Structures are given as structure tokens and as C-alpha cells.
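tool_call: predict_structure(chain=1)
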Amino acid sequence: MVKAIKPIEHDELCSLIPHSFDMCLLDRVESWDENTITCYSHSHHLASNPLRRNETLSSVHLLEYAAQAMAVHGGLHDREQGIQMREGYLAALRDIKIELLDIQNLETELHIEATKILSQGGNMIYRFTVFAGENTLASGRATVVSISNS
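tool_result:
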């Protein structure tokens, strides 16, 4: 069952993850449920993007967009359960595929999808894909490890 009927915008997203202002790369969540989240961003267009180096934004940074989508998903879930968001770390990346070297000139917004495929004791494994239009830019799996006492 999809939970986000009206989009969740940038300022609210910043309250769900330990990133704020420009470092919160996502613009909005269009939908989410127990296992999935769909986010969008145009921050790859911004000169103020904190990941930009020498006027270049590498496609490896798409992994950070996916990681933030996973963190927002966890924050939304914890908020719905009435508990404080558990702190976690990206512990492993597997089966990573990146299709471009430089993403700064992409004209469309980024579309990020993440699906939780395993959750045990606050630790999770997600499958993710980052798109621009109909083109897949990056995909893979990520393991997130909780460090909280919950």
C-alpha cells in the first residue's frame, strides 16, 4: 500500500536524515510503502551541489542519491512507528552498475527507486535504481547497518 499521497518535499526530507540544506540531495518523495520508496531530484543541476568537484559531478555520486533515498525510507518508517530514527551506515555495495561518467549535464530530473529486500534487527539490504527519464544510470544493492540500541 503506497503511503505518500501528496509529495514529501525537501525541507521535510531534511528533517528525516542527518543531511541538511544542500547536502540533502533529494527534492521530494512521490510514494513509499513498507518496502519501497520513489524519490526525485534535480540537485545535479545546481552549482551549489556539495558533491561537485572542479565543475564536474561524477556518476559515482548517484550512489549517494540512492543512499539518501534509503535513509529517508528508514526515517519515514521510524516516524510512522513513533520511534526516533535509528542511525545507520552504508556498509556494503554490491552488483553496482554505472552507465555514465558525468551526470551534471543531464537535462531531466533524477528518479530514484529503492526496495528493501531484507530487514533484520535494524540492518537492511536494499536494491536501488537511479534513472534519468527512461534511462537507467546506476543500479545495485546496498547493505545498511544500524548502530542504534533498539
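agent: Strands lie at 8-9, 28-32, 36-41, 88-98, 110-120, 123-132, 135-146. Proceeding to next step.
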